[in-house]
Amino acid sequence: MGRVNLGEFEQLVLLACMRLEGEAYTVAVLEELEAAGRSASHAAVYIALRRLEERGLVESRSEEAREGRGGRPRRLYTVLRDAKQLLLEYRETYLSMWDGIEIAGGAR
For domain 8-97, is the CATH number 3.10.450.10? Predict the structure, then answer.
């Protein structure tokens, strides 16, 4: 796989999917992002998940409808190995860039 560039939001969506451990679907990912203090729309999460799937970073499967959910099936997403490796590379890059930087008195 060639180097794939991910934006901040796509990285956060992947991380939310990883936190959800096989139970990642649009609404759950949205809730995970909001719990972390990142607001997003349902449409933005849906589009990001589809784009990540098209790029081969997640795979999805349809889950049959269950009672109590209004009878609607949902699509569950799983983060693939290439995406996990890519996230590790991004993490290392950010940590390397932050090394030695201190912000005194907080950000303005």
Answer: no
